[in-house]
Amino acid sequence: MEEILELTKSLIRFQTVQAKPEEIQRCAAFIENWLEDHGLFHERMDHGGVPSLWVAPKHRRVPVLLMSHLDVVDGPDESFEPYTADGRLFGRGSIDNKYAVALSLFLVYRHVEALKKEGLDQNHASLGILVTGDEETGGKNGAKKALEKIKADFCIALDGGNVGEIVVKEKGIFTLKLTSKGEAAHGSRPWLGKNAIDAFIEDYNRLKSFFPEPAGDHWHRTMSCNVLHAGKAFNQIPESAEAVFDIRYTENDDMDALYEEMRRSVHGDLRILKKEPLFFSGTSPYIDLLLEVSPQSRTTFEHGASDARFLSEFGVPGVVWGADGEQSAHSRKERVLISSIRELRDRLERFVKKVEAESRRRRPSSGNRINRSAP
Fold first, then answer.
1. Inter-axis angle of helices 2-12 and 338-362, nearest 10
2. What is the β-pairing status of strands 127-132 and 236-237?
């Protein structure tokens, strides 16, 4: 655990935010050096300036893949100085998602070392890992591109839930932009113009009618207005107002049909900025195996989204799981419970051992040994 924590602290010190791509590159290089120092074969892909690293057999097929990301949301400089207190590790990315990168690295290292003791090499690994660099900004240059190259029978995205909750579905993302038009006039004579903000408010209320009010834990679509621009001077009637809406939808929603209804209901211009798929775990015996090694856990859903949505796109069964961050992700006091990392490590190791035992049962009896006479 001490090694995992120290590696996590080292990763936190890299300010891997979108505005500092050079830090993302430096962090990726640091991970590459760690892999080389620990004798692990790895591959790197850079797409759109975003690095992705994976450790897997050379044929790029693995029964179980652990997926994590090294990028984080912005924060004050002091949040990139990690510290421990009260059984918690604090710092930007401590829970989202650098503990997961460190844990993945150690798990795959221990797995490959165990294989070597039996005369096998990394090409017979049952566990692989994928670390990407753009989850916080959508994952299209990271996980989406990397999953085109790596084939897995099952994937655990270490990016949500907690030890007691295994996430089997996440909502999809639908982002809309509404532009409302008015007519400019002097603020002292509002009757000579048409206030675009008033037009926006009317359309906003029309859009809200398509969404039930969230009450407690639920599983239905939601909408929030999170960006709003209007007006240029305090004494001028604004002639334009623009807003961006964040919609989270479920498998019960036909978003194309809903969008058309919403578009017809408003007077302003409503356009789609982004549509991301939802995540659904699918059926897999690996989920049953995961619950077997972690009987205290239950399956659940999550309102947020992660790179797990690309698993659905590529037809890879999987779940979202992780340590406990006390819902502190993206906050000034972001943290992870150290005890939960330990619990997660133990359960994942038991899971991988069971997967390895099954892989070994199917593995041919010859041609699997390392040639120790080779240079």
1. 110
2. unpaired
- Segments in the chain below pLDDT 50: 365-375
Q: How far apart are the first and last CA of the chain?
A: 34
Q: Which of 323, 343, 320 is nearest to 335 (CA)?
A: 323
* pLDDT for the residue numbered 364: 57
Residue 118 identity (one-letter amino acid): E
Same domain, 62 and 166: yes
Contact 41, 123 (CB under 8 A): no
DSSP strands (E only) in the chain: 43-47, 50-55, 61-69, 83-85, 88-90, 127-132, 151-158, 165-170, 172-181, 185-186, 222-230, 236-237, 240-249, 269-276, 279-280, 298-302, 318-321, 335-337
Name every residue whose Cβ is closer than 8 Å to that of residue 33 and which is 6 or more positions away in sequence: none
Task: Say if residues 324 and 288 touch (Cβ distance below 8 Å).
Answer: no
Side by side, the strands of the sheet bearing 240-249 are 222-230, 240-249, 172-181, 269-276
pLDDT tens-digit readout, 152-180: 999 999 999 999 999 999 999 999 999 99
- For the question of whether the overall pTM of this predicted structure is more than 0.90, the answer is no
371 within domain boundaries: no
Distance CA 243, CA 272 (A): 12
How many angstroms from the chain centroid is the CA of residue 78? 24
Please check whether residue 98 lies inside any domain of the structure: yes
Distance in angstroms (rounded) separating the CA atoms of residues 62 and 71: 24
Amino acid present at 35? L
CATH code where residue 153 lies:
3.40.630.10
